[in-house]
Amino acid sequence: MADSDRSDRLAGTYFDAAIELLRQVRDEEGERITAAGRLIADTVVAGGRVFSFGAGHSSLPAQDTVYRAGGLAIMNLLSVPGVVGVDVRPATLGSALERVDGLAAAVLDTSPLKAGDVLVIISLSGRNALPVEMAMNARALGIKVIGVTSVAYATATKSRHASGGFLKDHCDLVLDSRIPVGDAELTLPGIDAPFAPASTVVTSAIMQAVVATAAGTLAERGIDPPLLRSGNVDGGHDWNARVMGDYADRIFYRT
């Protein structure tokens, strides 16, 4: 097969791999995703708050749930300077901060999170000190923790936390993204490294499925879910202003 023929098929091969991962998550994690959505709905009903956190590229699915059209207005991002996002310079600093012991405790102590709230922690490997300690300390404070991670890493790698544990070991609920170790779906002769990661696609889908379940559960209980509309449709800004006003005590991205 000519090189051009191989490269022409890569896009389709990648889509097939991502679709297969999504199917696995749908079929094998569906019950836990439903449970996670219901836990968020329970928290909303009880007057609690909801936060999501991820470091590096794992922050992207967390950010994808915050202040967006079709999403719940009460989803907040737990921000850690230098860690959330990939805009820090140098980019390697973010990876280094994930391995710093004690950082999670300082973040939680200065955050709005309190007992009865929900914290979604996203970490593909679940092996670094920051997500592990974040989960441990949050639960010690009475915060419910939902972990979104690839459980495969716990059998193929070693924890970087002093306890030897992974994120999955310190959560009330674990959602397995089923992403293979290394997060790359494609290989090709002549290319030494595997390429084409799928973790953002799959983990973002998991997060949106959880949010959708939470919204549907609230509606089933007779509660109008605090959903945001697109600011690019007529009336969207007025709608959002009303929703955010109604839930102002649970929204922390406006100040």
Question: How would you describe this structure in keywords?
Answer:
255 residues; two-stranded antiparallel ribbon; 8 helices; SIS_dom_sf; five-stranded parallel sheet; UPF0309 protein JK360_21115; UPF0309; alpha/beta; RpiR-like_SIS
The whole-number mean of residue pLDDT values reads 92
- The termini sit apart by 57 Å
The number of distinct β-strands equals 7
Contiguous uncertain segments of 5+ residues: none
Order of helices and strands: HEHEHHEHEHEEEHH
Helix content: 40-55%
* Apparent shape: globular
Output the number of helix runs. 8
Q: What percentage of the residues does DSSP assign to strands (E)?
A: 5-15%
Structural class: alpha/beta
Rg of Cα set: 19 Å
> Order of strands across the widest beta sheet?
2-1-3-4-5
Sketch the major β-sheet: 5 strands, parallel
Describe this structure in words.
The chain has about 260 residues and is of the alpha/beta class. It contains 8 helices and 7 strands. The strands form 2 sheets. Strands 2-1-3-4-5 form a 5-stranded parallel β-sheet, with helices on both faces. A two-stranded antiparallel sheet has the order 6-7.
What's the short version?
The protein is of the alpha/beta class. 43% of the residues lie in helices and 12% in strands.
